Amino acid sequence: MAARWRRGVDLTAIRILGTVAGLALFLVAVRAYDRRRVSRLGLIVVTVLCLGLVILSLRPSAFDPLFGWFDVQPGDERRLLFVVVLAVLVLFFLLLGVQSEADTNERGIRLLVEALGRERFDWARAATLPEGRRLVVVSPAFNEEGTVGQVIRELPAELDGLQVIAVVVSDGSEDGTARVAREAGALVTELPIRRGGGLALRVGYEIALRLGAEVIVTIDADGQHLASELPVMVAPILAGEADYVNGSRLLGEFERESLVRHIGLHLFSRVITVLTGRRITDPSSGYRAARADLLERLVLKQDQFWTSEILIEALRQRARVVEVPVTIVARVAGDTKKPGNLRYGWNFSKVIVQTWLR
Predict the structure, then answer these.
(1) Using CA atoms, how far apart are residues 218 and 310, in angstroms rounded to an integer?
(2) Strands 288-291, 213-218: parallel, antiparallel or unpaired by DSSP?
(3) What is the DSSP letter of 301?
(4) Do 146 and 84 fall into the same domain?
(5) Cα–Cα distance for residue pair 143/118, rounded to 1 Å
(6) Running DSSP on this structure, what letter comes out for residue 143?
(7) What are the per-10-residue average pLDDT scores of the chain (358 residues)?
(8) What's CA 17's distance to the chain center, in Å?
(9) Read out DSSP for 59-94?
(10) What is the C-alpha separation between 29 and 99, in angstroms, rounded?
(11) Is 22:53 a contact under the CB 8 Å cutoff?
(12) What is the CATH number of the domain that holds 223?
């Protein structure tokens, strides 16, 4: 008798909770609709689900035909379990629909920003460049007016018969990054909003390919990479020994940012080495060089934390990847754009897994 009484109390509590949850969710949906945060279709779907939840809570017998159709007999909470499973399935398909719509919108925004970036490039200035073989140095930049000028000025005008052309992609900068870069001699494009170094780099790569580059180098705009080491970066490619060159601070010299990041660098190095079967010492280095025909074949999707993606993609294409020692120095101006250690580690790991699973 006591067990039956407790069961009745539990069921009553569940019904009250279901009724309150249904009404609360409906009110939240109505308020969101008034603020134009959900569509009319979304409001209708939520209303139907909330109405079903309230009816199920107040009058479960109304669903007897549904239970009978699935041959769910009363007793031992079988019907309650059936309702829970059904609710999970409904939520799963709703989440799938929302995610699909979000992915479509995200892709549309990405393509629009990339198109605007290509359109806003200094094509008129590029048309005045002398003919000849070209090496394009791409530098994504966000609010780097204090350093980008010096980075561009330190680049050589020519290297082993290749004309060196600097391309700066201002990633929605809110300062004078674009102006300073142009004054220093770079060709510049400005993205309308900040989307991350990965998207900025893709825009820079597309521009470099249109400029007829034979070799494309990426260098940070914050001054942490040395332009004087550019010959070291491209030497294996020009010698026909590599398709892709990764600048490694662990093979060269660097000023350690923090113990956590240093440990993370070694950890990610091990992970990528295991996943790809190639020994990589510095997967997060932004100092890279590649043959233009290799970059044309790579599938790059990440807007941020792009360094591991491009490296894994190059290895997937069976490119000849070589690491060379480089020097990484501390920035002398501006603030770091990297997130906190936990967020950085999580997102970097996610990109590695997503790229490897393609």
Answers:
(1) 12
(2) antiparallel
(3) -
(4) no
(5) 20
(6) S
(7) 47 76 87 84 84 82 79 70 76 78 83 92 94 95 93 94 96 93 95 89 95 95 91 95 92 73 77 83 89 91 79 88 90 62 73 76
(8) 40
(9) -GGGGHHHHHHTT--SSTTHHHHHHHHHHHHHHHHH
(10) 18
(11) yes
(12) 3.90.550.10
DSSP H or E run through 192: none
CA distance 80 to 90: 15
Over residues 292-341, the pLDDT tens digits come to 999 999 888 887 777 788 888 888 888 999 999 999 887 666 566 566 66
Phi/psi of residue 18, each to 5°?
Answer: -65, -40
Do the Cβ atoms of 256 and 174 come closer than 8 Å?
Answer: no
For residue 229, what is the DSSP state?
G
Separation CA 350–CA 41 (nearest Å): 33
Tell me how far apart the alpha carbons of residues 323 and 242 are, in angstroms, rounded to a whole number.
10
- The pair of structure tokens assigned to 249 is 């601070």
Residues 131 and 246 both lie in one domain: yes
Last residue of a domain, one of 114, 142, 176: 114
Residues 296, 171 share a domain: yes
Calpha distance 68→62 (Å, rounded)? 11
Helices 78-119 and 40-58 cross at an angle (nearest 10°) of: 170
Are 89 and 130 contained in the same domain? Answer: no
Whether residue 109 is found in the same domain as residue 126: no
Q: At which of 81, 114, 147 does a domain end?
A: 114
Quick one: pLDDT at residue 9?
Answer: 47
HSE, CB side, 13 Å, CA atoms: give it for residue 30: 9
DSSP per residue, 314-331: HHHTT--EEEEEEEE---
Handedness of CA 291, 294, 295, 300 (dihedral sign): negative
Dihedral over Cα of 139, 316, 355, 259: its sign: negative
Range of the domain at 74: 2-114
